[in-house]
UniProtKB/TrEMBL annotation:
One Pfam entry name: CreD
PANTHER family on file: INNER MEMBRANE PROTEIN CRED
Keywords attached to this entry: Membrane, Transmembrane, Transmembrane helix
Protein name: Cell envelope integrity protein CreD
Transmembrane segments: 7-25, 307-325, 337-356, 362-382, 389-408, 414-433
Length: 460
């Protein structure tokens, strides 16, 4: 019965610590919200996450179709049906290039990665318009040659656009629909015309955290070098050249491999899509988009949030170790002492978050772990009445912190490492207790002076 009561007390102590961990998790989310607000404030001045789409030639026309209908008297009559339509013509070949030098902007203690794309986009158009026939006639209006941008506030200077080598003046807006970007109007073609021309755009565009290209050509070639050493690519995987610093990425994709044209026609303009402070929904938000995300490989808030999820595991392992120590050494530990050690372990995650806002995640983890392991070691020396026992237990706790750090920084192997850790810990506990008669242990006559006995009596 004493064993059962002790287990119940430890359970309630665990609930208290879990509540503390939940509160710390709320603090992490609040700090993430503050950082997201800092990103939005900087993006409002520099430019949001940018998506470059285009060019696309949009030809508005009126289609007059002659149909034969039967009137109420049963006679066949000819009737003209006029319909407003648009024809979208994409480049047969699209080449997008330009460097992406990066920098930092700070809002308080939060630093945000910004970039300036010094870009060039060359497109070749080659298409044959359908000719009129006896049943269908088309009357074309002036078409738009349109480029879309997520946030034109990031434009540096005036983009330069040439058509077949002749400079033209661009106008703001997507032109053919509501949305941000630049466009020009061209001379209205005639049915049956063969449209062949080259469009070359030179542009300087600033943005925050991510840069994307929508490969709208039939054949797309995208070359993006940068000085950022830890890019994350979303969408089609690029080929990369070896460079001393940063990356040089190259994509060679066709309209057959990335379905970007149809969603572009049917969807919203890229400027009407939500801001993207991270890369979690880039591909689903704009199908076919190729993106480079400039984020720190180890984000303090994301890593701390992941660490807090392991807090209950830490607590369970530590309390199980305490319980086994009580049994092995016949040194009862009071539930209040369980509580204090559990709170010290919870404070570790708060220290990790606090230091992580000012130094690298690895350094903040090291400082927080040393502080908490040192405090617990000093406390256990008094509780257990032995520095040797306290150091032994603290060494196991330090090893546990080391394993957790490995799990946190190895995102791809986190599941297998966490599963292996659980298996090893459970195997160790089962090995140590496989010959224990728990019915005998729970009896006062078992030789244990009671799970709630005083520590001083046990040590005499």
């Amino acid at each position: 019965m004493q064993l059962f009561l002790k287990a119940v007390m430890i359970f309630f102590v665990t609930i208290v610590i879990v509540i503390a961990l939940a509160l710390i998790g709320d603090v992490v989310r609040d700090r993430q919200d503050y950082r997201a607000q800092a990103i939005q404030d900087i993006a409002a001045n520099v430019g949001n996450a940018q998506t470059f789409a285009g060019p696309v030639l949009v030809l508005p026309y009126v289609e007059t179709r002659v149909v034969t209908e039967t009137d109420q008297n049963g006679k066949s009559v000819l009737k003209q049906i006029r319909t407003d339509k648009r024809q979208y013509i994409f480049p047969t070949r699209l080449t997008v290039s330009g460097s992406l030098p990066t920098g930092e902007r700070a809002r308080g203690m939060h630093k945000v990665r910004v970039y300036e794309w010094k870009g060039h986009a060359t497109a070749q158009f080659n298409t044959q318009l359908a000719a009129d026939d006896a049943s269908v006639q088309r009357t074309f209006s002036k078409p738009w040659l349109s480029y879309e941008l997520s946030d034109p506030q990031g434009l540096q200077g005036v983009p330069s656009l040439t058509i077949n080598g002749v400079s033209t003046v661009v106008r703001p807006g997507a032109g053919f629909r509501s949305g941000n970007g630049i466009h020009i109007t061209m001379a209205a073609p005639k049915p049956g015309d063969h449209l062949t021309f080259d469009a070359a755009l030179t542009i300087a565009l600033r943005g925050t955290q991510s840069f994307s290209v929508l490969p709208l050509g039939d054949d797309n070639r995208i070359d993006l070098p940068s000085d950022w050493n830890a890019p994350k690519f979303v969408g089609a995987s690029p080929e990369q050249d070896r460079v001393a610093k940063g990356f040089a990425a190259h994509w060679r994709v066709s309209a057959l491999s990335v379905n970007a044209q149809d969603p572009f026609i049917l969807g919203k303009s890229v400027s009407q899509r939500p801001d993207l402070p991270d890369s979690s929904n880039i591909e689903t938000d704009v199908p076919g988009r190729i993106s480079v995300v400039f984020i720190d490989p180890v984000d303090a808030y994301a890593s701390t949030a992941r660490a807090v999820k392991y807090g209950l595991l830490f607590l369970a392992v530590t309390f199980a170790g305490f319980f086994l120590f009580e049994f092995m050494k016949r040194a009862p530990i009071h539930p209040i002492q369980y509580l204090l050690v559990g709170l010290a372990m919870a404070i570790f995650f708060l220290l990790l978050l606090s230091f992580g806002e000012h130094v690298t995640f690895g350094l903040s983890y090291l400082v927080a772990a040393i502080a908490c392991v040192g405090l617990i070691s000093w406390y256990l020396a008094g509780v257990l009445g032995s520095w040797k026992a306290a150091f032994g237990f603290s060494a196991l706790l330090a090893a546990l912190y080391g394993v957790l750090y490995g799990v946190l920084i190895s995102e791809d192997n986190a599941l297998i490492m966490g599963s292996a850790l659980l298996f090893v810990l459970l195997a160790a506990i089962m090995t140590l207790t496989r010959k224990v008669d728990w019915y005998a242990v729970s009896k006062p006559s078992s030789g244990w002076k009671g799970l709630f006995g005083s520590q001083s009596e046990t040590r005499k």
